[in-house]
Structure formats: C-alpha cells, structure tokens
Amino acid sequence: MIIGVPKEIKNNENRVGLTPAGVAELRKHGHSLLVQAGAGEGSGFADSEYEQAGAVTLPTIADVYGQAEMIIKVKEPIAEEYPLIKENQLLFTYFHFASGEELTHAMIERKAICLAYETVELPSRALPLLIPMSEVAGRMAPQEGAKYLEKPLKGRGILLGGVPGVKPAHVLVLGGGIVGTQAAKVAAGLGAQVTIMDISLNRLRELDDFMPKNVQTVYSNEYNIREAIKTADLVVGAVLIPGAKAPHLITRDMLKTMRPGTVLVDVAVDQGGCIETCKPTTHENPTFIIDDVVHYCVANMPGAVPYTSTLALTNATLPYAVQLANLGWQEACRRNAALRLGLNVVHGEVVYKGVAEAWNLPLVEVDSVLEGATV
User: Fold this and answer.
1) pTM for the predicted model, two decimal places
2) Which of 31, 96, 170, 248 is catalytic?
3) Residue 309 assigned ligand-binding role
4) Per-residue pLDDT tens for 203-232?
C-alpha cells in the first residue's frame, strides 16, 4: 500500500502522524511511504531520518495526497485540504466529527473512508488511540491552568501549591477518566487541593483508593458542581462521550457565581466542550475572558509538546496502521472489531451513531458497508 504522511497545517500543530521508526516498521511489511518535506521538523524529526528509514520525501502536501492510498495524520483535515482528498482514500487520524459539521459534510462529499482514532474502541470500552493524547492533555491542563492563574495573565494571582501558612489553590476536575485522573494527579503533585467529580460511583471508589490525601472525590450532579465552582480557582473540564458531543456541565449563568480570575481549562473542547461558554482557541491565542473568568480552550493541547506527543501517538497507532496496510481497510475492519468502531464516514455515508445524531444525518449500519465492500 502507498501510505502518505502530510505536514500538519492546523494553527501551531507541530505533531506528525508517523515517526521515522513507524516508517521503518511499515517498510518492513513491504509498504511505500511518502512523507511531505518538513512534516516532522516540529516534532524534532528531520527529512533525512525519514529517508534513512525508507520513506520518499515529497515537496508539497498535494503531492502526498495525490499519490497516497492511505493518509496517516494527527488532526482532522482543514478546509484547504478538503479538495485534495480523493474518493476511496483512507484517512486515519483524529476527526471529532461530532463537533465539526462543516468537516462532516466535506468528508461525506469527498466520499473518503474516514477512520477516526478517537472512536477505535476495545471490548473493555477503552479507547486505545485516544488514551495517549488524553494522558498528555490531562497532565498539561494543571500546568496551563497554573500559568493562567498568574495575575499578569488575568488570573486570580494564586500559586497552585500555595506556601507554608497560605492555603493552596482549589482545583476542580470534572470527569474521572484518563484526562481527569492525570489532571488530578499532577495538580495534587503540585500541592493543590483537588476535587474530582464523576457520575460513576465505582470510578470514584477506584480513584479514592489510589489518589493522595489532597484529592477528594465527589459525585457529579448539577447541585454539587454549582457549589464547587464557587470556591474553585481552576476548573478542568475532562468529560468524554466517545464520538459524541460532550454535555455542558457548566452553563453561562454559572460564571457569575465564580470569583473573578478563575481559570477554566476545557480539555473536551474538541468534542464540543463541557463548558457552555468555551469555543476552540489556538496556541497562538489560547484564552479569552467572559464575566471575568479566564477560558483556556485550545483544541490541540498536546501540539505544544510535539516530541512527546508524536512518540506517544505513534506507539499507539502503529499496530493498527500495520493491520490496515497489510489487509486493506475492509478486511482489517472485518477482523478487528475495535478498528470497525473507528469507521465514521465511508463512501459518503455516516456509519457512526454519535456523528449521525450530532448533525441529524441518516445512519448506515457499518456491517452493511463492509459486506458491500470488496477487498
């Protein structure tokens, strides 16, 4: 199979879809790799490293899309990439269709095969291709929140861990999954007083068993959230419903009950956000203020630490990429139920329930698409 790795062109996105080690592994299986010149520079990988691993470097993004049967990326295609995508071309990347109506319709129109990292799901309900970036974003959230709590950046002027004789900051984490757990651990490690909320009592019991003593677990409901945000200095939104829009746990009217300079970090913003007033921002302009509350809503947080993120992502995606390349997407998805759940849009049809519901589109059963496909 001919596999293409284009340079990411989303604002301040420095990650790349495949490392030189990933290229070498796919070459070992007999596949051809086309890498756009400069694609790995932001992550610290030179063109020469890709060439030594067996890839051919091409000068433009159009060259890569034009020749590749399968595209491996990090973030969803943006508008200028839409015309480059060919019918029947396999795109293996993060899509987050449930928060992007324009993107959804564009991929339907292009009749590509869109296999989304974020909805590849194991029988255990784990999301193996989302976990590494969730770990990175979760660990970054308190780090970014601590920065924007500084007064010159319009925060409350509070040191997250406090000092002897002065109380530490109160950090509220909404969601006890991968992002929330990592955020709570880092915030607690910095010395903050942390409250983590979730709707699963079983998950709260698990968290209670291994979290340090400065982390409290509280059942998540509207009343408890409204009470907690009154004293929170930093709120981390870490809610995920796979492939679907995140629910709004903090609404516009709640902002008036927060203290001026409170910081909100909505890690769920690429799935629509769990804070109503959040809208996607970039690393170039990461924050905005509503009702004196600082909103940090960067949709590609791990892009700020591209070396770590690219290595972590390739570690997770490469085994699936090898299956797709070796077997073809149809047979790979027939054999691997986790990969099959990654299919979101196929040949102009929406095959993932969360995407169809988000934009009121007809849903086609994925099995019927696979039955009609030839290897």
Assistant:
1) 0.88
2) 96
3) no
4) 999 999 999 999 999 999 999 999 999 999
